[in-house]
Amino acid sequence: MEDNVLKVRGLRKSFGDRDATVPVLADLSFELHSAGSLALMGRSGSGKSTLLNILCGLEQPDAGELTLFGQDHRQIDWQQLRRERIGVVFQEANLMPALSLLDNVRLRASLAGQPESRCQHWLDVLDIGALAQRFPDQVSGGQRQRAALAMVFAMSPSLILADEPTGSLDRVTADDVADSLFRLQAETGCGLILATHDPELASRCEKILDLAHQAADQNTGQSGL
Amino acid sequence: MTAFSALLSHYRRHPWQGIALALLMLMATALWTGIYHLTSQARASLSQSERVVEARYQVQRVDGAALSVEDFVTLRRQGLCLMPWLEVLPEGESRRVIGVDPLAALCFQGQADVVSFDGQPLRGDPFMDIADAAALPARQAQLFLIVDPDTGELSADYRITDFSLAPDTGQLGDSFLLNLDALSVLVLLITGLLLRSVYLLSLSQRRDSFALLHRFGVSPRRVRGHLVAELVGLAALTLMPGILLGQLLANALAGGFASVMEGLFDSRQFVTSGNSWLMPALVMVTLLLLVCAVDWLIPEKLRKAFAVANRSGGLSLLLLVAGGAGVWLAANLLFLFGSVALMLAGAGLLMPWCLSVLSSRLAQASKQPFRRWWWAEFGVLCRRLALPLVALQLSLAMVLAVQALVTTFEATFDHWLGQRLSADYYLEVPTDADGQVAVDWLEQNLPESSGAIWHRVLRGQGQLDVSGHEQSVDIFAVAPVGALVSDWRLIESAGQPWQRLAAGQGVMVNEQLAYRHELAAGDSVQLTLAGQSLRLPVLGVYPDYGRPAGEILLAADQLPDDFSVSFESFSISPGEVDIEVITEALSALWQEPALTLRDNRSIRDLANRVFEQTFMLTRAMTMLTLVLAAVALLLMGWVFLSTRLWYFRLLAVWGTARTGIFLSLLTLALTVSVSAAALALPVGIGLTWVLVQRINPLAFGWSLPLDLYPGFWLELLGLALLIGLCIGLLMRRQLGRPAVRPSVTGTITGGER
Ligand SMILES: Nc1ncnc2c1ncn2[C@@H]1O[C@H](COP(=O)(O)OP(=O)(O)O)[C@@H](O)[C@H]1O
Ligand SMILES: [Mg+2]
Predict the structure, then answer these.
(1) Atom of ligand 1 nearest to the CA of A50
(2) How far apart are CA B470 and CA B472, in angstroms?
């Protein structure tokens, strides 16, 4: 396995047209070794989601170097990478509403080319095995986030990008979900980048990257995919 | 910002939805208003004029000539109380006005209504001063003299008869109008479904805003009140333009409509006062309020019970079967329409159920997770779009049925006309001329070798004795019975009908007569011709789409010598002989310089024109409804899929290619719209059967063969594909934009399953 999963040098990103550009990420550099974990901190609008989007190829950087699994970002087949190696978890709505929890996990696993036979196992591991046949609207928010984690681990990822995965949960549930995430990350040995504005959660990661000093606005608008 | 403007801001963010909703209202209002105008005017036309002439008598000349002003003067001098009644069909108009003389009417004792003309000023709707009416450039004008028979004796040149505006065949015209009414009810139903689906959509899209308002202390009642106010406001904006548009539509179709009513059903159409806008406005506002208020009008318990009853499709099947049985057994039109409504309700309920069952079965059967997701998503789509889908299904079925009816009728009618007018020329025998002279000449001068064929037709009246009571029927006596009639299509017949007819061994009856008196080939009829009684078997029943009256066809030598012939003609295909040779010879024999000779092709063209006008209205109406439903599905499909955009983009996050996502979106949209079309097919075929085999016989006395036109099915399928394709392409544009993540407050918008 490559020693460095991720290497970022001088990354820049801004939004808007030529007249009014809003710099979001300016000259950002960091790296992540395999099985390492990194917390992205910063208040709302500081560019956490934007950075995660760039790291999974949903957004292109304006400038800078990005090397993922030893490959330059311009040469990466992002689709294949997202399908098989990078798992993404959002704050909410990670599940297809018309499918049961188990079918959601199966869908994610099959897209990643992983066997479906292990799907129930992942739900069991995340303590929601009994809810496998329920639909997302029939379980609690915490259980939905657990199912989202089951989906991610079922694809046996090399890197997990989690965008405020516990952001809409209460303290106790959030801690439970975070526990599961860190435990399984350690067991499977994949990398983790976690965006959060919660210092306590951030402190559980090996490293913290604070984007707060970056250009930030008060815009709390929902971020796009 | 008030709660109300907060709600309205929804349309500021989604202007297209507001515009579409307004357009939907506008089109539906226009459509319904158009139909309502035509039928209500046709009805008002008669009843309004009829009130004035109730139980009145008129004077006619014994010699049958038209009345003139001289007759009026003569009779007036004899001391009779008379009122002139001049019906004028002005140049370029489709409906008549009535010229009256209020002064002359003063002599009618105690009948003030004649003087005031139902309290209406003489403005030409339809009554106007006779002098003005006479001055109008007229296409047609006829003078009637209404008389009070107790005021004097008539000279021998005149006789008194009933004066009535309603034709003998009045109920046929009524049936026609009733058919249009039924169609407009169906249009209203479809419109209601569409409005309801738009209302529900805007409701579900704004659930978050409602939750917010609720948290700000606005009661749910007030929110609903605002919603209704919003819809009523929308109605206020769109109703008047819609009604105006409908009146334009009605005016555009009025000419054809009036000529159909006059030409086909002998129902004279008079100008009526004013265009009513009140009724359409009331109907549309009521519909709108019903659409919004269904939730409060029907108690929650009842709706739950209903849902439970239909869980296994039982209720819809029950409705379908009950409706079907009703259609089978119906003895009158209203009952029949009620049963059809039941049938359609059943079909409309069954379709979402079918799709729901289908999608969950197929989802369960799919081993492949992606395919399972696709079918599950299909199920959601069908459930969310159930109302516009049913609306599309019903309008497709309606269009299918009407199209099949019209096309079948067109083909049958054309075929029938071809048989009826199979001779090249039609020659009228002048009133005083002797037809037998012509027969002798034709027999001598048109040998069979010349390829010429002809026959003579004598028309008159006879009395048919049906189970004890006499009914007057039209008599058609033909001689010789030959090639011009012998290949008429017969609805039913005994063996060798034409040979036996020629030999005087029986008669043929038209379909209307057979239907009304349940006559079949082989039955006997008791016929009285010029006082002479005959008992003859029915050899065959022939279709007759032109005339509603009962008709009997027999060989001319069956007629008694003193049978009074009202009209006589020859049908001639001259073969190698020049028609002018024939007309010149006959004109010399009859000493009549100008014979009336008609080229049958032109008659055929005329008949076809009348026919087309009859169905233009029906066609226009069904097509517009279909467009309405199609646009609605397109819109709702697009809007609903937009709320689900996040989940489609989730697939992209999971590494699915953009084209793959687009393809699944496209196939989803296509499958949904095509399912509606596929499920419309059986309903459409059922409706076609009801139209040609049940409604038409009940309403008009004739039936049609049940012909289906798969070519047209393909066209409708094409339309369904087009709708799906448009939805898919609209979504493709959306896919390129950032998707808004469904919010967590309350129920997740777009997160339905
Ligand atoms: N697609 C976009 N177009 C324009 N501006 C964007 C877009 N996505 C994000 N932004 C802006 O970039 C900034 C950073 O957003 P985001 O990465 O979502 O911050 P965070 O996740 O830290 O809250 C915000 O000001 C946001 O408005
Ligand atoms: Mg964010």
Answers:
(1) 17
(2) 7
